[in-house]
Automatic annotation (TrEMBL):
MF GO annotations: ATP binding; diphosphomevalonate decarboxylase activity
Gene Ontology terms describing biological process: isopentenyl diphosphate biosynthetic process, mevalonate pathway
Protein name per Swiss-Prot or TrEMBL: diphosphomevalonate decarboxylase
Keywords, sorted A to Z: ATP-binding, Lipid biosynthesis, Lipid metabolism, Lyase, Nucleotide-binding
Family: Belongs to the diphosphomevalonate decarboxylase family.
Length: 329
């Protein structure tokens, strides 16, 4: 059932066990599994409308016609959907990110999970959550997890069918996002992952360590201790940044300010607060804490960056024109 239009909303996610490295880039299979929390903030809203008379796809991002790599990735993704649907139709894709792009929070995870839901509906595909996760993965690995509500585990898998995310039970937690202004544009995750696998002498150890960390995190999520989850997440995040720094030429995503935030979080812990830091491929830091302590943690870190408390949110889902209008107007 499709009238050639699909509209969806999705949110970024923050990995507590990181995805860093692919075993198969063509199929976007990761070297190891990962676990993340999908946000309830910084939505991406995407509308895909088929145009059987058009000669090419068009892509609009935050009110501007997109070109270059951003548009090419959307078109390549639509090609996958067209192949699944047996369609030749071109499409007009319009996307709005609520996250401030300049702050480095606009995410490929929210972007490709929203596009997976919107495009599959526009092309008349009826996909369940696992199938949507597999599809989103083809656009950006981390997008596989933003299809899932709240906490998600992405099973690495050996094949396309086995590599998807699904929900995992965990205690109710919050993340305090501390946004640090990026002075210069960093190397993309995709490129940096390639360089890590190709040049770091520690890459094999990193993959083994991530597999072990995933098992420990699954157990910690089940037994319910936020401190245990946080301890595992912070150590793992620093190990990811260590392996990234060990590439040739090296890449450093954490800035002096990021390190200051990690230190401030350690001081909060010394004072008895539940607070554990993590960071993805950029200088912004996310601090894992309990719902009861989130406002106090945000207050304590407010001098170091722009703080925002985010909670577990919905996985990518279809929305109607009416709901989408507020984002597009
Ligand atoms: C550091 O999903 O952006 O955020 O699959 O090449 O599109 P591609 O990479 P991407 O990488 C995310 C890396 C990370 C860790 C994580 O989200 O697990």
């Amino acid at each position: 059932m499709s009238n050639g239009v699909g509209i969806a909303r999705a949110y970024p996610n923050m990995a507590l066990v990181k995805y860093w490295g692919k075993r198969d880039e063509a199929m976007m299979l990761p070297a190891a599994g990962s676990i993340s929390m999908t946000f309830d903030t910084y939505a991406t809203t995407t509308r895909v409308e088929l145009d059987p008379t058009a000669q090419s796809d068009t892509v609009e991002l935050n009110g501007q016609v997109a070109g270059g790599d951003a548009a090419a990735r959307v078109v390549a993704f639509l090609d996958i959907v067209r192949e699944m649907a047996g369609s030749q139709s071109r499409a007009h894709t319009v996307t709005v990110n609520e996250a401030p792009t300049a702050a480095g929070l606009a995410s490929s995870a929210s972007g490709f999970s929203a596009l997976a839901v919107a495009a599959s509906r526009a092309y008349g595909l009826d996909l369940d959550q696992a199938a949507l996760s597999r599809l989103a993965r083809r656009g950006s690995g981390s997008a596989a997890r933003s299809v899932v509500d709240g906490m998600a585990i992405w099973h690495a898998g050996d094949t396309d069918v086995e590599s998807f995310a699904e929900p995992i039970d965990a205690p109710d937690m919050r993340l305090v996002i501390v946004t640090v202004n990026a002075a210069q544009k960093a190397v993309s995750s995709r490129e940096a992952m390639r360089r890590t696998a190709a040049t770091s002498p520690f890459y094999g150890e990193w993959v083994t360590c991530t597999e072990e960390t995933l098992e420990r995190m699954v157990a910690a999520c089940a037994s319910g201790g936020v401190d245990e989850i946080g301890r595992i997440a912070e150590t793992h995040a620093l190990r990811m940044h260590a392996v990234i720094q060990s590439c040739d030429p090296p890449i450093r995503y954490l800035s002096p300010r990021s390190h200051e935030i990690f230190d401030a979080v350690a001081a909060l812990r010394d004072a008895g607060t539940t607070a554990w830091a993590t960071a993805d491929a950029g200088p912004n830091v996310a601090v894992l804490t309990t719902p009861a302590e989130a406002d106090a943690v945000a207050g304590a870190l407010a001098d170091l960056g722009t703080v925002r408390v985010v909670g577990p949110g919905h996985g990518a889902r279809a929305i109607d024109e009416e709901t989408a209008r507020a984002a597009f107007d």
